[in-house]
Design brief:
The complex is a heterodimer of chains A (479) and B (172). Chain A is mostly helical. Chain A has 20 helices and no strands. A four-stranded antiparallel sheet of chain B has the order 2-3-1-4. The longest helix of chain B has 27 residues. The chains are: A mainly alpha (479), B alpha+beta (172).
């Protein structure tokens, strides 16, 4: 396989197929580090808080939230949209980047997809609980019933959302698992005893035959083709929950693309937050290199700029529409009682990603980690601003109120982080966090060791062309 | 049912591809080749036809689309039409999102289900595998012993760069 020596390497240092298996399988086979135990304990404690607050909510009713008659969507829907947004990066990486043949995808797709699934599970819990009686949630599905059959209302974007989120969750799990089967088989064939039995069950009898791989590739390609419009549809439909209403500040046609860009933006920020910790804690720096982080930062820069221009466009259109309510909604956002939320959003989402124009910052792990956290915070505030500031001052000034969350809402938010991170820690322990087979399939063309060979054959001076390949220390000089 | 196989083990994909070409040219039938990752061009060298899974996916997609559109039209337009502000009950643009989602859902589930069934990948199945290292870093060619000149095939595999050549009785 030929790869231009000018390309930056995706695997640094010495490598071989056996070494790739060894390095990645050790995360499953070895004893977890003490950082894993620490992280898992903290997450599990937060998950405990989730069970506590959700239990209290179920026994008492949604009145324990700080919602009122005017602001009837608060932290619950904010968190729902925030989590769904985070769940967009995984499928983008595995589907859209597969169609674009981006090789760097192979090192991060597995963990990003896992993150997607867990984020969508967290997201789904909010409308489920907001509906008040989760035990009759099957009423949202068009099932025959004794009321005549009175069917679900397919004209409602809220129902579209039910179908979008559940389809997205199902297809993401299927896509993720199809890719996981060959890697579970790798663990199976290295193990003995109980571990072998367990991984044998979950790897479905995978044998790596040429015919199986041929079908695997064909299935992956079609799933990617299906998941690409799917991922774009999900957040578009979420945005229609708002856009089809007549609330000033929500009723805008810009919402679907603006929400999708925001979702990719926040999703990549969360992926970065996670993998920066993961590559260190699990000693995977050789596979998730600074080059991977660099390209992801470029995507954050692009989507962050789209989001920034959407904010400005929104404001301009509110003025240009000459609708007094629309104008008021936006002026109230920026200068009303929730001004601090608006400016937190503007700072975190519009200004911070612009720092990524600098290559030095894109390749500085500490800076990237801090910026990624800022983006996560900013995107949470975006949803809070859109939901709460648009609702709290409606058409009738006598019903204007302020909203603040109760301890149950705060506990559930912290708890949902617990749910997310507990699931992620379990995944990181029991499944290969990097798609071994896929990394092997790009190793020959993208490992620095093989790039060096190509350059030698062609008589290219790598020192000038691509110093990172020759001097691996250069990779870390900004770390 | 287990049979005798000659297993040639290779350490890299380039000699493997070369060997597959040569073995087939010598008139020996290859039972199957096992690799740790998808090796491009291998299915062509083995003379495998293109997978029909894309066609299955297309059919599942058609099924999903027809089911979802008729479900919505029947429920809202025929079985229980509602007057919502005098608007037509069969508001087909409203059916687009759910039809799209269900089409994708049924296509994905149908295609992946078909894939697992035709490959015989069912939870709990024992793997029919010639060598435990093929899921990690080795590449194997399996040739049925019956009807071949075992000594000649072994010599050929060795000449083509096989690291090891075994004869095993197993189920593949």
């Amino acid at each position: 396989m030929y790869e231009s020596p000018i390309r930056r390497p995706l695997i640094t240092g010495e490598t071989s197929y056996a070494k790739i298996t060894e390095d990645i399988a050790q995360t499953v086979e070895g004893k977890p580090t003490k950082w894993w135990y620490l992280g898992f304990t903290v997450s599990a404690a937060a998950l405990g808080l989730w069970f506590l607050t959700v239990g209290y909510l179920l026994f008492t009713g949604v009145g324990v939230w700080g919602l009122n008659k005017t602001v009837d969507w608060g932290w619950d829907i904010t968190n729902f949209v925030w989590w769904v947004g985070i769940g967009h990066a995984g499928t983008l990486i595995s589907a859209i980047l597969l169609l674009f043949r981006q090789k760097w995808r192979t090192a991060v797709n597995r963990s990003a997809e896992a993150m997607t699934i867990f984020a969508v599970i967290c997201a789904g819990s909010y409308p489920l609980l907001h509906a008040g009686r989760p035990w009759v949630i099957y009423w949202v599905f068009p099932l025959p019933n004794t009321y005549g059959s009175l069917w679900a209302n397919f004209n409602s974007p809220l129902l579209w959302d039910v179908f979008a989120i559940s389809t997205y969750l199902t297809v993401s799990i299927v896509f993720w698992y199809v890719g996981l089967i060959p890697d579970l088989a790798t663990i199976r064939d290295r193990a003995s005893g109980l571990r072998r039995k367990i991984y044998s069950f979950f790897s479905f009898g995978w044998n790596g035959s040429a015919k199986a791989w041929q079908r695997f590739e064909s299935v992956s390609l079609i799933l990617a083709g299906l998941a690409t419009p799917l991922v774009l549809s999900v957040h578009s439909i979420v945005s229609m929950d708002f856009a089809t209403s007549v609330v000033p500040g929500w009723h805008t046609t810009i919402f679907p693309p603006y929400f999708v860009a925001g979702a990719v933006f926040s999703g990549f920020a969360m992926v970065l937050t996670l993998i920066i910790i993961m590559r260190k804690a699990m000693r995977l720096e050789q596979y998730i290199t600074i080059n991977h982080i660099d390209v992801m930062n470029k995507i954050i820069l692009v989507t962050g700029s789209i989001v920034g221009s959407a904010y400005i466009t929104e404001f301009f259109i509110a003025w240009y529409s000459a609708v007094p309510y629309e104008r008021y909604a936006f002026i109230n956002r920026a200068f009303g009682p929730y001004w601090w939320a608006y400016w937190a959003m503007m700072t975190c989402n519009v200004i911070t990603p612009q720092l990524f124009w600098s290559q030095k910052l894109r390749r500085n792990i500490t800076a990237v980690f801090i910026i990624s956290i800022f983006v996560n915070i900013g995107m949470w505030f975006e949803r809070f601003v859109i939901i709460v500031t648009s609702l709290h001052r409606d058409y009738l000034p006598s019903s204007w109120v302020m909203y603040s969350p109760s301890w149950v809402e705060i506990g559930m938010f912290i708890g949902s982080q617990g749910l997310f991170f507990t699931l992620f820690f379990l995944f990181a322990k029991f499944a290969p966090v990097i798609a071994m087979a896929e990394v092997k399939s790009v190793a020959k063309s993208s490992a620095s060791q093989y790039i060096k060979k190509t350059a030698e054959k062609e008589g290219v001076d790598l020192k000038e062309l691509n110093p990172q390949v020759v001097v691996p220390q250069l990779m870390d000089q900004y770390e | 049912m287990s049979k005798h196989y000659i297993i040639g083990v290779f350490g890299d994909e380039e000699p493997l591809l070369e060997a597959v070409k040569e073995v087939r040219a010598s008139g020996t039938r290859i039972h199957e080749v096992y690799t740790p990752f998808p090796v491009h061009g291998l299915d062509d060298l083995l003379g495998y036809k293109r997978s029909r899974l894309p066609k299955a996916a297309f059919l599942f997609g058609c099924l999903g689309f027809i089911l979802s559109i008729t479900m919505q039209a029947w429920m809202l337009g025929i079985d229980w039409p509602m007057n919502i502000g005098g608007k037509p009950p069969l508001a087909w643009p409203d059916f687009v999102p759910v039809s799209f989602e269900l089409t994708v859902l049924i296509t994905a589930l149908g295609m992946v289900g078909t894939y697992l069934v035709v490959c015989d990948f069912i939870p709990g199945n024992e793997a029919k595998i010639p060598d435990l290292r093929v899921t990690s870093h080795k590449f194997c060619i399996a040739i049925e012993r019956e009807g071949t000149n075992a000594a000649a095939v072994t010599a050929l595999l060795n000449r083509l760069g096989a690291e090891e050549v075994h004869e095993k009785e197993l189920e593949l």
